[in-house]
């Protein structure tokens, strides 16, 4: 029987990833992707590529053998898994669930054991890289869970050179890839904070943000350069009713996961704490429609500048 793949979650990352997966399935004459999302119309462009909408997660699961999820946070993922496990009359035995969201390792362990008690498999495959990297199919995946055969022969071919440029195999414990993702975000949020500080310094000293950005790109690489661009293009505070590249609340969640694990293990993460507090202050000041790099607005305010720069939106959001 041909394998049917399902996808739930069409946010900033999920839509780009599912689009690449559908293109791959179509080019290999495989069955078209089934998809669903809370806001189903987000999938209109996917449908034009041949993917098939499903009105809810329960239907998606019942018609798929492999189900990808890419959603905001732990609570959303847990409620989806509850739906799958508790739907009367739907067996999930031998289905493979694979989550790409960033969630706490404890959530992953609990979901994995609940699914395995129903004879389903679970893999955790969080990703590194933002929306432009997802669109280019160049994400880095950390992959863990199930058996080496399932990871290498069934799941990896759906990822490598389809949605991602690299798959880091983290073994059979799915919590391991989640932990690697949280650890990676220590670097992400700290680097955003540092780039923000450097750009405020450049502006206040008269050096200029353009020269600073050129240097950041050349000397510290495209990732740091990309974070600088989010500031200089105003993407840190996008127009209201647009979807930020990496929403501020998602990054606060990630920082809090890192801080809670660090606290358990007696590790201090002062730069993560600072970045988290500045992101939370930005959200208090300007609302939800902010990118994770919006700690920059708070750093600007602390230096006597407006929260907004000439390219960002100019207010509102509360
Ligand atoms: N953005 C990045 O740069 C990035 C990079 C790496 C990892 N991540 C992680 O990847 C995950 C997805 O990020 P994203 O940027 O794609 O997030 P996003 O744009 O905010 O999309 C979130 C997705 O979750 C769905 N969702 C939210 N609340 C829901 C609810 N109560 N019930 C059902 N569905 C719900 C949304 O549905 P609607 O479309 O209906 O809102 C959407 O499909 C997060 O865990 C994030 O931390 C993000």
Supply database-style keywords:
binds NADP nicotinamide-adenine-dinucleotide phosphate, 2 domains, alpha/beta, N-(1-d-carboxylethyl)-l-norvaline Dehydrogenase, domain 2, Rossmann fold, 318 residues, oxidoreductase, globular
Give an account of the 3D structure.
The chain has 318 residues and is of the alpha/beta class. The chain folds into 2 domains: 5-172, 3-Layer(aba) Sandwich (Rossmann fold), CATH 3.40.50; 179-302, N-(1-d-carboxylethyl)-l-norvaline Dehydrogenase, domain 2 (Orthogonal Bundle), CATH 1.10.1040.10. Helices cover 52% and strands 11% of the residues. The chain has helices spanning 14-27, 44-48, 57-63, 74-86, 105-116, 131-135, 148-159, 174-205, 209-220, 222-232, 248-264, 270-286, 295-302, and strands at residues 5-8, 34-36, 52-53, 66-69, 96-99, 121-124, 127-128, 139-145, 164-169. Strands 1, 2, 3, 4, 5, 6, 7, 8 and 9 form a 9-stranded mixed β-sheet that branches. Helix 8 (174-205) crosses helix 11 (248-264) and helix 9 runs antiparallel to helix 10. The protein is globular, with a radius of gyration of 20 Å. It starts with a strand and ends in a 16-residue tail after the last helix. The protein binds NADP nicotinamide-adenine-dinucleotide phosphate. The site of NADP nicotinamide-adenine-dinucleotide phosphate has 26 residues, from helix 11. It holds the Pfam family NAD_binding_11. Belongs to the HIBADH-related family. NP60 subfamily.
């Amino acid at each position: 029987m041909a394998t049917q793949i399902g996808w739930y979650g069409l946010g900033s990352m999920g839509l780009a990833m599912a689009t690449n997966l559908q293109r791959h399935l179509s080019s290999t004459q495989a069955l078209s992707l089934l998809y669903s999302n809370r806001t189903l119309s987000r999938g209109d462009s996917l449908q034009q590529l041949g993917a098939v909408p499903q009105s809810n997660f329960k239907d998606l699961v019942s018609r798929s053998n492999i189900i990808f999820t890419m959603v905001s946070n732990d609570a959303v993922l847990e409620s989806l898994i509850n739906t799958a496990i508790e739907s009367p009359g739907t067996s999930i035995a031998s289905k493979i669930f694979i989550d790409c969201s960033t969630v706490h390792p404890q959530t992953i362990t609990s979901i994995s054991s609940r699914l395995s008690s129903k004879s389903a498999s679970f893999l955790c495959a969080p990703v590194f890289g933002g929306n432009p990297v997802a669109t280019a199919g160049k994400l880095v995946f950390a992959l863990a869970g199930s058996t080496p055969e399932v990871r290498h022969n069934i799941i990896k071919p759906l990822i490598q050179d389809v949605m991602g440029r690299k798959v880091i195999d983290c073994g059979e414990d799915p919590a391991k890839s989640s932990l690697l993702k949280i650890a990676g975000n220590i670097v992400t949020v700290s680097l955003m904070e540092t780039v923000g500080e450097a750009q405020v310094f450049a502006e206040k000293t008269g050096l200029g943000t353009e020269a600073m950005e050129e240097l950041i790109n050349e000397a510290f690489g495209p990732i740091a350069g990309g974070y600088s661009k989010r500031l200089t293009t105003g993407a840190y505070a996008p127009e209201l009713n647009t979807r930020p590249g990496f929403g501020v609340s998602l990054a606060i969640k990630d920082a809090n996961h890192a801080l809670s694990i660090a606290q358990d293990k007696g590790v201090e993460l002062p730069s993560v704490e600072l970045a988290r507090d500045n992101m939370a202050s930005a959200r208090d000041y300007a609302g939800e429609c902010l990118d994770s790099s919006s700690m920059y607005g708070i750093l600007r305010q602390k230096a006597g500048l407006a929260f907004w720069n000439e390219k960002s939106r100019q207010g509102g959001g509360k």
